Amino acid sequence: MRVHVRAGARLRRAWARRSEDGGYRQYVVYLAFVSILAVFALMLWDDGFLSWSNLLNIGRQAAPIAVMAVGMAFALASAEIDLSIGSTVALSSLVAAAVVGDHGFFLGAMAAVGVGAAIGLVNGLITVKVRIPSFLVTLGTLGIISGIARNMNNLQSMPIRNDAFSALFGAGSLGPISSLVIWTAIAFAIGHFALHHLRWGRHVLATGANRASAKAAGLNTDRIRISALMVSSVAASFAGVLLAGRLAIGRHDLGENDLLTVIAAVVIGGTNLFGGRASIAGAVTGALIMAMLNNGLILMGLEVADQLIARGLIIIVAVALSMRTPSESVGDDVP
Amino acid sequence: MTAPALSVRKMSKAFRAVQALEDVSLDVHRGRVTALLGDNGAGKSTLVKCIAGVYQPDSGTVSIDGVTHRISSPDVARTLGVETVHQNLSLIDSLNVVENLFLNREYTRGGSFGSRIGLLHKKRMSRECQATLARLGISIPSLRKPVGLLSGGQRQAIAIGRAVAWGQKIVLLDEPAAALGVEQAQRVLDLIVALREADVAVLLITHNMDRVTQVCDDAVVLRRGRKAAEVRVDQVTKDDLVAFITGAKTTDGGT
What is the pLDDT of residues B198-209, one digit of tens each? Predict the structure, then answer.
């Protein structure tokens, strides 16, 4: 009996310690993941929700979203936002398709990612040098890039006939594991490492939490903000490569509807929408939740309209549970 | 007589039509605490920010140990040995104690490659943070806590501890004990005295005359962006200082 009491006290202390730094909220995304998985597994047992092929399907669907989410986590962590990721996906899929034919899979992928880096650099430079919020800058470049993508092949999709490209970036697998899942794991590993083990990651968080203080500490916040926006664009262009690989085409509307899904995934994952706090593991888990919802609601036989409503409600509940009131404000700017 | 650790000459700074500083000169000596006094809007924080590289003065010079430098950024100021504890800008609330203490001065591991990519040496920073705080007699319950969750006194102690930890020779403090309880304020004052004993030059902005007489050696009074007085604290009374601040009494920079 006494043992139980003591264990209870210890648990309470552990709980109190946790709630001091972020509290239970940082674990909401994992709880949500497990509970949604459990609910779907029970409800859709007969529809084969838990079958290997369906789980793989979810993983494949989640991959581009997860890769974009890793990038977006850095943009949000630095208190910026990148609305142009959807059109970046489309343009880089087209660039990959255009280059792969003559120059092979490697240059095709590199060209696409290079386009992403260039877009991020432009987004960042305008944001920092012209002093326009990245929300508005990327809203503008979203349209511009989308227009360029539409013009590139007159709204036609560009086929990719390169087995190496398709195998490496989408259709192939290593043993039972799809290459898409492997790329997701790589993106997660790089992102997690950069955020927690590199000086740059720490400076991104400092800049996002309080730019004026970060500046006063001597950080080059301009360069940090530009680099965070570049990471977001590069991740989006790589997501474009993955979509192009899976579908074996480049097309102007790939990724067009992914922006809000990505933001929802990142925020559910515990990244502060207003900067200063980020979780890469959370962002990837958030992406898995989004793909799982998509898949499960379709298997449940919901109409598209009902799917949208159900997904919206679930996202609001999850975000409400995982968001902390932004006590660490962005801070007043140094003139 | 050696050159003062910090010497400001004829510094001016305007924000649009407002002349925040006009021809202000002052010296801060090693091993002495100089009070920077003045009413709200007298230009105290502007002066400190100009020295710290946060603002660029319109004219005037800053010399450190007799050598004139252009302090183009906070980073330059730090490299020259000037550490600033700003009123609100010193710490990043969401980072923890160790992360704040080492912000922009992180240790890296993994040799030259590690330092190029900025691979953090977390263990070393954690260890040295503990040692530094212990040496200064600052007790913080958890170094892993975001500093936003610490008390005002603990936060100030960390901000000042950062200056000490890095062996800086000039420390600028903007109202370090404002909004602190009596005991916490006393602890901050103890830290300032410790700085003086370590032969650091300290410039202390404060509104509290008791603190001036308690820990300061010299006092410079600003009034509407100009220097109203520069005196030795042991040669004036609190009432004199208040009179300088309100403009009831003036000197011409002499003691």
Answer: 889 999 998 888
Contact B108 A199 (CB under 8 A): yes
Q: Which residue of B has its CA nearest to A22?
A: B146
Above 60 in pLDDT, residue B4?
yes
ipTM for the complex shown? 0.81
CATH class for the region spanning B6-93+169-246: alpha beta
How far is it, in rounded angstroms, from Cα B77 to Cα B84? Answer: 9
Give pLDDT, residue A5: 55
- Select the residue of A197, A214, A327 nearest B92 (Cβ to Cβ): A214
- Using pLDDT thresholds of 50, 70 and 90, give the confidence band for residue B165: confident
What is the domain partition of chain B in residue ranges? 6-93+169-246
Looking at beta carbons, which residues of chain A come within 8 Å of B52? 216
A160: left (phi over 0), alpha (psi -120 to 50) or beta: beta
First to last CA, chain B: 18
More confident residue, A176 or A93: A93
Domains of chain A: 36-322 (1.10.3470)
Contact B106 A335 (CB under 8 A): no
Spatial separation of the C-alpha atoms in residues B145 and B140, rounded to whole Å: 9
Contacts of B15 in chain A (CB under 8 A): 335
pTM over 0.90: no
CB contact under 8 A, A216 and B54: yes
Q: Quote the crossing angle between the two packed helices A221-247 and A134-152, to the nearest 10°.
A: 30
